[in-house]
Amino acid sequence: MRIENGEKIYPNCLTITRTVEVGGLTKSQLIQKMQQHSILMNEFGERLFAEANFTTSAKTYTLNTIELTVRDLGLPEGATTTQLFKRANDLGLELCPLELGPNLRLRYLDQPEGYSGQPSRQHQAPYGSITIASEILTEDENFPKGFYLRRIKGMLWLRWIHCR
């Protein structure tokens, strides 16, 4: 499949795939493991972690992830979260469980630097970050919508997504 300007979209585009083991750890155990690896969380990431609706599976399972850009979904001008999720679903992709964020962060310790002096971008994911497309816990505009992974000046982060 191609969009009007000839760019390839999923599944006919370059992708990064990962197999990630998820589950088997409580939220407290995940936090402890992240601290052991010096992984940082911002205040809103901690708030999301503390939310009662954010649960972890007692049973371990494996997920296959696909890393794509919004453009890879055929949306070169960007889109709302609802539009992104619908487009991904139309292409046969599913949302990830929220617990994938901390589990992927723990397994992707060699993430390249994302800052590299790049200017911040408004209404877009930061350079070098990986946003986890997961179910939104609440429609409250002031509550975090999910996690993203980033390396900033050598430090690994699990941060929150803010979007409407």
Keywords:
alpha+beta, 18% strand, 164 residues
Molecular structure report:
The chain has one domain (16-160). With 164 residues, it is an alpha+beta fold. 22% of the residues lie in helices and 18% in strands. A 4-stranded mixed sheet has the order 2-6-5-4. Strands 1-3 form a two-stranded antiparallel sheet.
| Percent range of helical residues | 10-25%
Radius of gyration: 16 Å
- Which structural class is indicated by helix and strand composition? alpha+beta
Number of strands: 6
Total DSSP helices: 4
The poorly predicted ranges are: none
Write the layout of secondary structure elements.
Layout: E1 16-22, H1 27-36, E2 40-41, H2 43-50, E3 61-67, H3 81-90, H4 100-107, E4 130-131, E5 147-152, E6 155-160
Parallel strand pairs: 2-6
Antiparallel strand pairs: 1-3, 4-5, 5-6
Helix pairs in contact: 1-4
Short description, anyone?
The chain has 164 residues and is an alpha+beta fold.
